[in-house]
Design a protein that fits this description.
Helix content is about 20%, strand content about 35%. By secondary structure, the chain is an alpha+beta fold. The protein has two domains: about 25 residues, no CATH class; about 180 residues, Immunoglobulin-like (Sandwich). The strands form four sheets. The chain has a four-stranded antiparallel sheet with strand order 1-4-3-2, with no helix packed on it. A four-stranded antiparallel sheet has the order 10-9-12-13. Strands 7-8-11 form a three-stranded antiparallel sheet, with no helix packed on it.
């Protein structure tokens, strides 16, 4: 800031001139540099990125449904956390791709279960499209099963229609019981699904739902006639 205490060539000029501002304070001419526009600090920018990640993950979880991680996530007693919050944290930390503000879901890295009491996951799973807008999901029995795994463990199948952006199927929610020994599950679609891209995940739970396996992502298929 500059101050002119005697009459100067700037007499009568007021306001912004180039990169300075001319004014009079108590009869004294004052010259100030034009302030720089406020910059968003790094903390605020980080908050914006975090909010964008949260929005992306939350919208996806809402479309899948809270029942899925509600069944697949296990928490230790007195953890002070909820299954939904833990699922959100995992999505934000591990399953997002892209850069701010254009984040999207990396479906291959999504996990719908986090076991503490673990049983065997899907063994040699396969997910393929079949005729009449359908697909076939198959797996094999592990030749060296874990001690806590059982043949009557139930498959939890989650299907997401990427084209429509919604959950297409959640096995346990439909009350359809698919035991580990079934080794195959077929879904018959409908004409409106032609050309839709469907993602599939599978995990297993024990009959009493006290044990759970890791999630296996089995890929994406495009439905066809």
């Amino acid at each position: 800031m500059g101050v002119a205490r005697k009459r100067s060539v700037l007499s009568g000029i007021r306001g912004k001139v180039g990169t300075v501002v001319l004014s009079v304070m108590r009869g004294v001419e004052v010259v100030k540099e034009v302030p720089s526009p406020p910059k968003k600090d790094s903390q605020t920018a980080a908050q914006d990125i975090q909010r964008a990640k949260f929005k992306c993950a939350n919208e996806f979880l809402l479309r899948i449904g809270y029942d899925v991680p509600g069944l697949g996530y296990q928490l230790r007693r007195q953890s002070g956390k909820t299954k939904i919050n833990e699922s959100m944290s995992d999505l934000m930390r591990n399953a997002l791709k892209g850069t701010y503000p254009d984040f999207s879901i990396d479906f291959s890295k999504v996990q719908w279960s986090r076991p503490i009491e673990k049983i065997d996951a899907c063994w040699k799973g396969s997910f393929v499209a079949v005729e009449e807008m359908g697909f076939e999901l198959s797996w094999e029995l592990n030749p060296f099963p874990g001690k806590t795994s059982r043949l009557h463990d139930r498959a939890v199948i989650v299907l997401f229609d990427e084209t429509k952006g919604k959950n297409l199927y959640f096995g346990m929610h439909s009350r359809e019981i698919v035991p580990r020994t079934a080794l195959k599950w077929i879904y018959k679609g409908y004409p409106q699904l032609e050309g839709h891209h469907i993602h599939c995940w599978i995990f297993f739970v024990s009959a009493d739902e006290k044990r759970v396996s890791d999630t296996e992502y089995l890929g994406r298929v495009t439905l066809k006639k």
